[in-house]
Structure formats: C-alpha cells, structure tokens
C-alpha cells in the first residue's frame, strides 16, 4: 500500500463565508459558493460568493443576484460541466419545504453571468421529486446525474440522468438500500460511485456502491468501516475523483459520524480524516497529514480544482463544526 500525504493550505476566511449546507463549484481558478444557512433552516440569500483561487491565498467578492436567479435555498446540489454550473432543488421558503420546480434545473453560465431555468422538453414525462441533501455529478460529456436526498418526507435511493442536449430526464436503476440523505457520488472512468449517507437512524459506511451506465446496474464493494482499514461511516461529507501518483483515486473526507439528538438544529460528532481509494487496486489508504489541518466538520462542500499545468487539488469550504457554529474558511487540499 503506497503512502498518501495530505497537505492543506488555508486560502481565505471571511464572516461572509460562514455557512453550512451550501454548494461549492469550481470553474477554472474560481470557486463559486451558493446558498446555505448561518442559522438553522434560514437560507442566507441567492447571491454568489466568488473566491479567486491561488496556491497560497484567495480573494473573495460577492456577486449580486439578478432578477432571474433561483430563490434562496439550503441543501441544494450542484455540478460543473464546462463553464456552466447546474443546480437542482434544495429546501427553502417560509415552510422550508423542498423547492418544487417540476423537474427543472437552474444553470449559471460563469462566462456570461447568466442564470437560466432549464425545463424538461417533455413536460408530461416523469421527473425527479423536489428534495434536499441530495447529490449530483456528471460524465464530463452531456449527462448530469442526480441521486437520493430528502423529499417532503422520508429519504430516496433513486438515480436520474439528465441529458443537457435533449433536456430530458431518464429514471435509472435505484441504488442499493437503504434510502438516504447526505450521501455522495462521484464519476470516474465511466463508472458512478456512491458511499456514505444517513438513513434516518444511522450513518452508512462499509460499502462503496458502483453504477455501470452501460448496463444500468449496481454492484457493491465492501470494506471494514473501522477507521483503520477503511473510512468510518459518515454522512454530509464529500466524495471526489482525483488523480494521484498517476492513478485514479476517489477521495472521501470529513463528515458527520454520529448525528445530533437535536436533529438539524444541532451538531453531531464530526470527522477530520481524508481517505483515498485506489480504483484499480481496490484498496483504501488513510492519508498522512502534513502541516496545518482544518477542524472537524460536516455539512460542508468541496470540489476538484484542476490547476494550470494539469495538477488536481480539492477546494473545501465552510460547514458545521462540532460546537454547532458555521465555518467561513476556504482550504485547498493537495495529495501526493
């Protein structure tokens, strides 16, 4: 088993950036932060916080919302394809209910600063239910994937694909039970990977579920979720594809290990570890920390930063600390 070293650099902090249940989307050398909450069940606003990234520091500015922008929301999900960020649903409004937009997605073109509501081409066709604390990714071509989350009641295990060219939804094979919120998916080398989440009773772990788009089938890789041979069970963490040592890895980090007895109003036991899964070797490695390290957190967001020269890193922002405070820091994680 090769050694994986994890090195964090804190790029920025601002009171304005304090939040949890937000989305972070990296486009070129900028991180676009949207939504989230500073107080439980109170969406902040519908502006972007734009973080200009460098290897040692970052600048932060607010990008005001235009009239056509989506409503303020928490627990949304986003994915980036080319220069466009795509969002689906979330929770908001006076009732803090899932935001029903009849299968539509919001897109934000970072090149033109234009918001667009993309409605399905066939309004009579099935579409995914409104939800929060779901997860999204894409295949790098024209397909967006949407999975799981919390509708008005209960939790989901469904998987949907949205073709951005045809503007159509397709209901794919559901993931293995149990249904869950706060789970994570990542796309790498033609496969979709899912792990972690909360089923309403306990955090999920010990299983890496793999979806094959060519077969529309799921398979499961099991591992000891003991914190020694494999990552502990968790939810509201992150799972991201990254190239390290010229190999393809899945990186999972942080998250909530034990939920709070206060539910969404409180903070549970948070984790601060970083694990790397070598896809080809089928093995987990717990990273060895180097230098400064962020405090434990869940309910944050992170995205891959593809730097000039091709090197890949991970941008981590905000989240909920164990003392129930919202964090306003931005870090970059490099693995070697």
Key words describing this protein structure:
336 residues; five-stranded mixed beta sheet; four-stranded antiparallel beta sheet
Structure in words:
With 336 residues, the chain is mainly β. Helices cover 0% and strands 50% of the residues. It contains no helices and 29 strands. Strands 26-1-29-28-27 form a 5-stranded mixed sheet, with no helix packed on it. Strands 2-3-6-7 form a 4-stranded antiparallel sheet, with no helix packed on it. Strands 8-9-12-13 form a 4-stranded antiparallel sheet, with no helix packed on it. Strand 2 and strand 3 form a beta hairpin. The radius of gyration is 18 Å and the shape is globular. The two termini are 14 Å apart.
Name the helix and strand elements from N-terminus to C-terminus, one letter apiece: EEEEEEEEEEEEEEEEEEEEEEEEEEEEE
**Helix residue percentage:** under 10%
Average pLDDT, rounded to a whole number, is: 95
Shape: globular
Q: What is the radius of gyration?
A: 18 Å
The total beta strand count reads 29
Largest sheet: 5 strands, mixed
Low-pLDDT ranges: none
Number of helices: 0
Briefly note the structural class of the backbone: mainly beta
- Cα-to-Cα separation, first versus last residue: 14 Å
Biggest sheet, strands in spatial order? 26-1-29-28-27
Beta-strand proportion: over 45%
